[in-house]
């Protein structure tokens, strides 16, 4: 799926999660929290394509990552005292940095499109929670986004290696479509329509 499709798919899963909140381990209070939750879902929905420099997220993550590393190096030279936050949260920053470097080295649609990746993201989020106090609802939101991405690519002809690295086998839905094809555009429009319907039925009394 293209980035646009993943955003529509992520949004659909996010809106569905908000709609069925009472049956899920989510705690959303008010519009700002719900919007933050949906934003986190959308970021998670783009993450698995971080292994592709051509992808929407890949194009932004690498320059930002390089910029942050450059700032840390410059900061270490000019203002070592300002680096206190990095030394305090060293484990978390090392985890994020090493994770991104590993993702850069993987080939497209392998690790990041497998069930192992979902587990890794879950473990990283739990570890980060101890340093940054991220709410469980937002952690679930990020995971929902990641799973929605893998599901979106599962619908495409290319499929996804769900059991990677145990097996290279690509799994795909029986009714799959080509990435970027007109069928994908129809699916995207259908998902957007579904989101509007879910949102409308949750606010209107019918
Ligand atoms: Zn993908």
UniProtKB/TrEMBL annotation:
Keywords: Membrane, Transmembrane, Transmembrane helix. The chain crosses the membrane at residues 30-48, 60-78, 90-107, 114-132, 138-156, 177-200. This is Inner membrane protein. It comes from Alkalibacillus salilacus.
